[in-house]
Amino acid sequence: MxxxxxxxxxxxxxxxxxxxxxxxxxxxxEVLRPFKMNPKYPPLRQLQHDALHxxxxxxxxxxxxxxxxxxxxxxxxxxxxxxxxxxLWTLLWAATIVHWRIPHFYLMHRGMHPWRTTRxxxxxxxxxxxxxAQHHKSYLPTAFSGTNMHPVEATLxxxxxxxxxxxxxxxxxxxxxxxxxxxxxGAWLGHDGFRWPGAGDFFxxxxxxxxxxxxxxxxxxxxxxxxxxCGSKADxxxxxxxxxxxGREGNMECTQVWDCK
Length: 261
Hints:
This protein is mainly alpha-helical. The chain is built from 13 helices and no strands. It comes from Durusdinium trenchii.
């Protein structure tokens, strides 16, 4: 247990810590400034806040990993015991991790934003206020912002795709644990805020700027299919009409963001 926790914490700080230092604090900062998607820079307070909460999220992800290992070890969760047992099956699911985990992410993420319906109680508004709003404090996201999540959200983020697919497809443990790794690194690099040498995820950058759009990822165009895709702030009107409760302004009541420069 302890070696696993130490491994994950070291990986978090090496990957996020180095990348945020390189992009935002190192002597290369001014050289890279033209490549920043939003020209504003987050204050040091946000970097410190996000580093703390991403560390806590890593503890949640480690808890999910420990749980899965326990379930496999006790036989409560079926698994493919060796890679040689079904090599092509394993290769298929390993090669498509980033694609099959995105629908899980969209479902969870969309559910934690206001549903904007009167047909059923708007539990999304409750979940946004009390859970997901923490992530949106990172209005100008960096690598450490990727898993700046409430413990409830962090646990679900790591648990949903890994446990569901491990059970449904009887995956080799390496694939399910690879999913946890991909969830972490994908979120960290996808929030770095730079076109180059960063990940350049302008799609998700727009979500952080305008809130009520782009809940998934570009790999699987679920937002396009379900009508929640926006390529600019003006597209919010196409999705939600003229409602004044959408976008950054409509969510400020529940979200405190850091001052920026």
